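Box 3.1. Reading complex inputs
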Amino acid sequence: MRFRDILATAFSSLTRHKVRTALTTVGVVVGILTIVTMVSLGIGVQREMGDAFNSVGLETVRLYPVTDEVSAFDPFGQVERTKLLTPDLVAQLQARDDLVEVTPFLRIPNGVNIVVRLDGREAQAAPYGPRPAVVLGPFETLPETLAGTDEPPAEGGSVVLSSALLEDLGIAAEQYAGLIGRPVELVLYAPRGESQVFPLEIAGVIERQWNSSVSLALPDRLEMLQWWYNDPDYMAHRGYDEVVIRATSLNDAVQIVNWLSTLGFEVESLKTMLDMVNRGMIILQTMLGSVGALALLVASIGIANTMIMSVYERTKEIGILKAIGAAPGQIRSLFVLESSLIGLLGGVVGTIVGWLLGKGLNWLALKVLEWQDVPMEGTFFVVSWWLVLAALAFGTLVGLLAGLYPAARAARLAPLDALRYE
Amino acid sequence: MNATTPSAIRAVGLTRTFEVGETTVEALRSINLTVDQGQFVALVGPSGSGKSTLLNLVGGLDRPTSGELWIDGVELSAGKEKALTEHRRQRVGFVFQSFNLLPRLTAVENVALPLMFVGVAQRERLERAVELLAQVGLSDRLDHRPTQLSGGEQQRVAIARALVNHPAIILADEPTGNIDTATGAEIMALLRCLNREQGVTLLLVTHDPEAASFADRVIQLRDGQITEEAAP
């Protein structure tokens, strides 16, 4: 018997009971669509994370000062630093030729209140930057430059303001260009009741719709911190808060991490983070995939049930086919192929629906993120070709396995008994 | 009888018993029978006399409990499932009382169906089916489904289907049982004609003396034994 004939016969049997075939297929559809959606989410998120980390650069290493235990009785107190990120260390790192970039950070504490005063108007602002050219958190995009520069010059003395801050100050977008080079005052208020004015110059405007922020260069930050802590030797006592190092290669990064570890620093490499994220994703994917597998198990029982019903219904037909020369193996092939087709059909529909569902969920996720003020671009559901093929093959396999027992029953029927069956 | 040509059917001590609960029913009791090639044999007898059992054994739908059964020189009772399938495919063609056509297939598809299981290409299958339907006088009914055909027409389709594999023996189980007398006579004439013209051996099971009158030999069965043999 030719495969084409087996296929045509099995296909015509399926189309004879359209509703039953459709209902049986639904089970497979649910299983496959769950798997496709979940696995595509896994692939998509993993890829997005990978891209994000790659754009940040895996050869990036973050170096932190070593700190004492936090005192539980003094939540506002400074944590003692036992090992400082000194300007000497930074200079030492900058001298190395296996490093592309060494960027020290100084953080202005959260409690510091910065008021920006411009043309007699005042607005609150959060400190922003400076940032090394490539170090961005995953999913973070660089803000657009609207006027002047996007980074205050490293030597200090000037600031970059965000569009949201300018809106708070009542300055329209058309006026941004005219702001460059104009003086601006930053006022800090300390809890001890004092305030200090820092006269600076506007170097640029960046697009930040949701955050009223002001970008400050390192020297200005240091000046503010010295005033805030009332400590002219702040750098000698506290050092930098973080140094971001970018090595020329991943290999160099690993070596620098080892070297810094021997010096007793706390080092965090993005590679270790990525490895962790990947492990997490694999666990998530496996868990979600199992949900789909469970759905498919239920679906396979449904298929088996339908096929057994079908064998009962067609007992007489099977008898006739045997009488006119059908071999048991041929009867078996007919039924196995029929149930495989149900699985394949479920696979096709499930893949399509899963793909559409992924698209929909992606859109929804971006909408929710936008609504939550975390706007970002991204494709979190990726249906790759191997996933499509695997889904189809898996659906077919489920159908095939579910059909084995009913098909064996059909093949075993004694022709005479089958012929007498009404 | 020519010694070099094996008999179409040769049964030696053919016995078939059925277990029905505690009791054993002997459907056939040590039957000895030889049918030459090209003969038209009618098996008659009351219900339960074993005539259908004999037919089913010859057709390879059932296996004897003991005894030998040679069809066309091949011992059938020793055969495995595969041999029985091969036998049904190549040596015999069935004509049933209730036609047993597949309702969703057209006349021509029904006739062509047995060829599908032997792996003949579709075009070739349909050509042969059209040819056979012409032989049984149904050229104008090729694409009709069984429900659109009369009883007599359905039985003609079934006869064409039985012939499609060039069998040596046609086994007809009450072929006129479900159709009216006049049409029944036509069916019998058709079978007789095929038997004469193509030399097909014909084994007919019937209640109907009218139908039996077409045969070369009439064998009477009763309680699983041959009681009488006559040439009408």
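In summary: The mean pLDDT of chain B is 90.
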